[in-house]
Design a protein that fits this description.
- This protein has 128 residues and is mostly helical.
- Helix content is 64%, strand content 0%.
- It is built from 6 helices and no strands.
- The longest helix is centred in the C-terminal third of the chain and has 17 residues.
- The radius of gyration is 16 Å and the shape is globular.
- The relative contact order is 0.13.
- The C terminus is likely disordered.
Length: 128
C-alpha cells in the first residue's frame, strides 16, 4: 500500500494528551477538542511534544509577545486569586494549567487583542 504515512509521534502525543488530561481532571471531550486544534498548529504541537518529554515548556511559540510560560503564569495567578491563597498550594493542578496554557495560546492566536486585554486587566497599583 503505497501512499499511507504513519506518524507514531502524533499517536504518542495524543496518548500523552489523554494521560495528561486525566491527571488534569479534564473530560475526554475537552482533550479531544484541544487535540483537534493542536494537530493543525505544527509549532505548538512540537511544543506540546517537548513538554511531554521534558515536563517543561520550550516557549518558542509567541503571540503578541506572549509565550506559553506567560499563559501558564497567568493561569497560576488566576488560580491564586480565585483560591484566595496568595500562592499555589499542593491542591493546585499544574497539569491542568499547562493544558489550559496550550488552549489559551490557540485561542489567543485567533483573537489576540481579547487575550492581551484579559492578561493585562486587574493589575494592582503596585504592579507595573
Amino acid at each position: 500500500m503505497a501512499g499511507i504515512l504513519y506518524d507514531a509521534r502524533r499517536i504518542k502525543a495524543y496518548e500523552g494528551l489523554r494521560t495528561l488530561g486525566a491527571l488534569a481532571e479534564e473530560t475526554e471531550q475537552w482533550c479531544d477538542a484541544l487535540w483537534e486544534e493542536l494537530v493543525f498548529e505544527q509549532e505548538l504541537l512540537e511544543e506540546f511534544v517537548y513538554y511531554l518529554e521534558h515536563r517543561s515548556l520550550l516557549d518558542k511559540v509567541r503571540c503578541e509577545g506572549y509565550g506559553l510560560t506567560d499563559l501558564y503564569i497567568w493561569q497560576m495567578n488566576r488560580y491564586n486569586l480565585i483560591g484566595d491563597s496568595g500562592k499555589n498550594t499542593d491542591a493546585c493542578n499544574k497539569d491542568r494549567m499547562v493544558l489550559h496554557a496550550f488552549r489559551d495560546m490557540i485561542d489567543m492566536k485567533k483573537e489576540p487583542a481579547a487575550y492581551v486585554k484579559k492578561m493585562t486587566m486587574g493589575r494592582g497599583m503596585d504592579q507595573a
